[in-house]
Amino acid sequence: MTQRLNGTVAIITGAARGTGEATVRRFVEEGARVLVADVLDEQGRAVAAELGDQAAYHHLDVTEPDDWADAVHAAIEQFGDPSVLVNNAAILDVGSIAAMDPAVLTSIVAVNQIGPYLGIQAVIDPMKRLGGGSIVNVASIDAIEGSNGVAAYTSSKWGLRGLSKAAAVELGRAGIRVNTVCPGGGSSEMTAPFVAEAMDRLKDRTERLPDRPISPFHRRGELADYANAIVWLASNESSYVSGTDLVVDGAFTAGKVEPGAPFS
Ligand SMILES: NC(=O)c1ccc[n+]([C@@H]2O[C@H](COP(=O)([O-])OP(=O)(O)OC[C@H]3O[C@@H](n4cnc5c(N)ncnc54)[C@H](O)[C@@H]3O)[C@@H](O)[C@H]2O)c1
Hints:
seven-stranded parallel β-sheet; 7 helices; Rossmann fold
């Protein structure tokens, strides 16, 4: 079977675990060579080591312009000019707008929005040398709608989605495509610190909270669901797709369930 990313050199951020790690594995299966980038050095090195010659780990704090320059240099030295960048690294914090320390908002925006901006800046030259490329920004369904408690994260993800659209227009003439994937879920390691607190809050609730199914599919998304969408946007199969939001949430945000109306 033809490998969909044969000959592709990719940089994937936040790749030491979760969705990023799953994406690295899918990219390698599809023939890509991947720079596994993260701040979790031990985990990132272990992922790359397991994958052999097609992967190499590089420490990259996405908020640091110098780290970006080093990472792109390392990718070029090891594998050649990158034609794919997956801006996947992100952080989450939960808190009300009223209570959140503005410093927390700033740190979330720095990683989730400014990090991808710096990444785009860093790959423009190598992608231009290749005559084009594909940049995939991993946002969230929190870039499609809003929820209580995550205003800071949501702002950063809407900002990232806006960045994708502006970059798609600006870089289109250079043959660089820029798209957003909006997963309906991801690694439980990102959300775990906040789940216990949420459960605690719920136990004192007396009012009835509206039911909202996870998805009409009645299953949660798996990391492979998100990774497969990223593979498609990275590959030439999506060569005329740019500036789009690919929502991967099993129709969770597609609309509301109308009680009493028929289901098939
Ligand atoms: N977990 C979810 O429920 C969920 C839902 C929707 C979207 N997402 C998005 O999916 C993407 C992947 O997240 P995940 O679910 O795998 O969570 P995760 O926490 O497992 O992965 C995030 C990765 O980013 C890395 N990272 C954090 N700060 C960094 C920095 N400054 N520089 C470089 N790397 C950094 C972390 O070390 C980690 O490996 C993120 O963009 C996230 O916002 C997650």
